[in-house]
Amino acid sequence: MANTPRYAIYYAPSPDSALHRFGSTLLGYDAVDGRDLPFPGGVAPDWREVTEDPRKYGFHATLKAPTALADGRTEAELLDACVAFAGQARRIPVIEPVVDAISGFIAVIPASRSDDLQQLAADCVTEFDTFRAPLTPEDRARRKPERLTERQRDYLDRWGYPYVMEEFRFHMTLTGRLSDERRGPIVARLRERFAAIELATLAIDRIALFKQTDSASRFRIIGSWPLRAN
Known about the structure:
The protein has helices at about 20-25, 45-50, 50-55, 75-85, 115-125, 135-140, 150-160, 180-195; strands spanning about 5-10, 30, 35, 60-65, 95, 95-100, 105-110, 170-175, 200-205, 205-210, 220-225. With about 230 residues, the protein is α+β, with helices and mostly antiparallel strands. The chain has one domain (about 5-225): Cyclic phosphodiesterase (Cyclic Phosphodiesterase, Chain: A), CATH 3.90.1140. The strands form 4 sheets. Strands 4-1-10-11 form a 4-stranded antiparallel sheet, with helices on one face.
C-alpha cells in the first residue's frame, strides 16, 4: 500500500487569496505547485517541527478524508465526479474564520456552527464514497477505535473516517499537537498574523482534489472547482 496513491476532497482557498498565502507560508509548503516556502520568523524557534504533520497535507480543510481508490475506479472518473459535484446548485456556506485551538492543535475554524457547511461536508462524504477503497485492518487500527465513541466507530466502519456527519468539525490545520503550555503563546502570535489579512468572512465556495502519489510524498492539488450557488 505504500506506493498506492491516495486522494482527498478538501476545501482549499483560491491560490491567489490572502488566506492561501497565510496558511501555505505558515506550513512552509504550497500544495498548488508543490513548492517549499521559507518558514516565517517570530512564531516559534522550532516552527519547522511544529508544522511537520500538517505540512504533508498542505493547507486545507477536510471534506472527504484521504483514501486509495476502490477497485475499478480511476482518477479520471474521480475528476469527472468532482466537476459534477461542484456543478450542483447549493447554498454556499459563509463562516466567520478565527484562529483557535482544537483537539490539541491550532487551526482556522468557524466562530460558530454553520448548517450549510455541515451539509456540504456530509454531501462530500456520501457522494464520493463509491470511490473509497475499503478500510484495511491496519488502517482501522491506526485510527485507534478503542479511543473513539460508539458513534465515531460506527462512522469509521461505514464511511472510513470517524469525524463525519455530526462529528464533523471544519478546521484548517496550522500546527501539530501542542502541549497546553505551548498552545497559548502560539495561538496569540498566529491570531496577530491572521488579523493582518483582514478576513471577516469566508465563503466555502470551492472544492479541491488532492493527490498523494505514495506514502513518502506530500499531497498536491490536481484539480479545483468553484461551487455553484443556488
